[in-house]
Amino acid sequence: MTTTSSPPDREVREHEPAVPSYGRPARLSPTTRSWVAWAVIVLLALAAVEAVLLGLTRVVPAMQPQSVPAPGAWTYRAAAGAEAVVDDHGVRWPVATSLRGGRDVPVPSVATGTASPQLYETARVGARSWSVAVPTPGRYAVDLLVVQPDPAAPAGSDVFDVLAGDGVGTAVPLERGVELVPGTALPQHVTGIVHVRSEELTLEFFPVEGELAVTGLVVTGLGQETPSTLLDEQFDGVAGAPAPAPWTPVTGPGPFGEGEIQGYSDSGRHVALDGAGRLVLQAEPLPYPEPWTDAAGTQRLQPWTSARLETKGRFSVTYGTVSARLQVPPGQGLWPAFWMLGADVDENPWPASGEIDVMEHLGGDPATVYASLRGLGDELDTPDSAGRRVSRLGTGWTSPEPLTEGLHTYSAELTPGYVTFAVDGRPVQTVSQVDLRRGQQWPLGKPYYLILNLAVGGTWGGPPNESTPVPARLLIDSVRVSGWP
Q1: d(CA 435, CA 379)
Q2: pTM
Q3: Contact present, 198 and 137 (Cβ < 8 Å)
Q4: Domains plus CATH for the chain?
């Protein structure tokens, strides 16, 4: 109807005689007045919408989308001293402006286990707190560098607690009972993953004995995703049942390591559930039936048979916490281990694949456990028998009691910048990227699969002797993994 009626209507009105204005504005036609009214309405509506949007932007800034950094994409680092520091990687550590309290003290004897001793040469003694502005709420990995500035300090003279808060809820312990240890061994680190619900993380320091001393801080974003339980294996099942998924046996005569004298079997005699909630790996001097050929072309039999399990191709983890509750066997020549290999080992052969040794134990030293991180080394690393330069970062920790007596939990916390190893929930050492030499590979940041095995012999621990128990058993009570795959 509009199409047929409007043209004549417009034609008639356009030819109406003009009305004299007598100094008043000319009268607009009804059509023009209609268009003007609509234009005014549209302009007013646009202005109103703009005002509303501007008001929302000002009043509710949180409604604006925020970028969430991927794990490892955002990092804060600062030095506790009065001057900025440049580490061995050429990274500048600016002076901390939010470290409260304390006084700067030079450290005369710096740990030799770091490629960047300049990070530990000046300590802030007696600091009260350290605040860090973070880009978004989320989870953050904290690596606090600490040191004992007095090389003659007696054991237990300087002990403190570290709590982490965000101004929203009650501060939570990052680590309690941190003892500053004198000496020139590995550097000390206080680490942990913290859930920050605001945009500021604050570390608070509470002395228990003496004073605390900090030298630097690294905080790395892990994203907003909540870590999940990826694996929780209790090994429930009937006696004699095979290891459940995702574990698969590795079989063959090897040799699997320098000087090792075992072959690996998948028989129920050497790997099975015991019916009491434990998985058992058993080694005994039963010659492995399949021979192997040495470099001279001679066929040999391994004199012992044992077991090895792994999750290659079925389960892996990148960041999070990996733990196993185990009872290791005593005995010269026994070498149980809970460890990890990079899932890309077929494309990047060891050591480029990376290796994380959560727990290695030598049966001839019942109270000591070893944990380490391995990757490609540099020219300062000693070549192995195959000519490969391998960096081995880590050391042993000796328990007050033999670890062969009862179950103990061995764990590793994996983050973009550090790995912290613990025994029964107590951190025993941290391998941090800040302590590596420039040419050494940092192997974190990719998936790793799990391995459990009971090796025999080897150039490290030596061969078994008449005191070695037969059979020898590694008992696995549980394996748990939480984090991000």
Answers
A1: 16
A2: 0.85
A3: yes
A4: 75-221 (2.60.120.430), 228-484 (2.60.120.200)
